[in-house]
Amino acid sequence: MAANISLKRVQINKANTTMVIAIALAAFALTFTVVAGKALLNKRAYQSRVIAGKEKAVKQLEENIKASNSLADSYKVFVGSNENVIAGNPKGTGDRDGDNAKIILDALPSQYDFPALTSSLEKILTNNGFKIKSITGSDDEIAQQKAPESSAPQVVPMPFQISVETNVAGAKSLLTILERSIRPMKVQQVSMTGSNNTLQLVIDGETYYQPAKTVNIETEDVK
């Protein structure tokens, strides 16, 4: 009798152990399935975001290509006109000549160059017969080189002062010449000393340059 009871207990214990193992395996399988399923869903969602990001980038690239082609066509028309924007000869070498691209660059350079400004002022004065006394200003090249690049650069003033020997008619003429210059010249102050025929004319003014616009290529992390 005792032997039968012991055998039944062994069988019960064995059955219980088997059941525990089965439950444990089932729980493990369920947990693994849930975790794996969640991982797959997360991966699928991530892949969907990556695909959507790529499609957006491709669409933007296609739009940029169309815009660049349109810009190239417009540029060809702009520089290929028979007369530039200031009624000069696009193929000539005079003060008002040159294609429209050259006119725009001369009007608002993209780099700070004070020596070039003084040379330009000297050419204007010499070509119009003015006796130059001095051409001065503040060369701020070092500070401008340290200025941070920007995607929306602002116009930067370049002050200058010119002093010439002329007469009343010459003074009026010089002011008109500066006003009509390809490069914008803003006269801020005029002072004259001397007689009608021998004037010392001093003009304080400023012109401008605008740093080149930077193009930033951005990257985006898909999370």
Quick tags:
223 residues, alpha+beta, Alpha-Beta Plaits, 17% strand, elongated
List the helices and strands and how they pair.
Blueprint: H1 2-79, H2 100-107, H3 114-127, E1 131-137, H4 141-146, E2 156-166, H5 168-179, E3 186-194, E4 199-209
Antiparallel strand pairs: 1-2, 2-4, 3-4
CATH topology of the largest domain: Alpha-Beta Plaits
In the CATH hierarchy, what is the superfamily of the largest domain?
Answer: Ribosomal protein S6/Translation elongation factor EF1B
In whole angstroms, how far apart are the ends?
Answer: 70 Å
Number of E-state strands? 4
Description:
This protein has 2 domains: 1-79; 110-209, Ribosomal protein S6/Translation elongation factor EF1B (Alpha-Beta Plaits). It starts with a helix and ends in a 14-residue tail after the last strand. The chain is 53% helix and 17% strand. The chain has 5 helices and 4 strands. The protein has a 4-stranded antiparallel β-sheet. With 223 residues, the protein is α+β, with helices and mostly antiparallel strands. The protein is elongated. The mean pLDDT is 83. The longest helix is centred in the N-terminal third of the chain and has 78 residues, at 2-79. The chain has helices at residues 2-79, 100-107, 114-127, 141-146, 168-179, and strands at 131-137, 156-166, 186-194, 199-209.
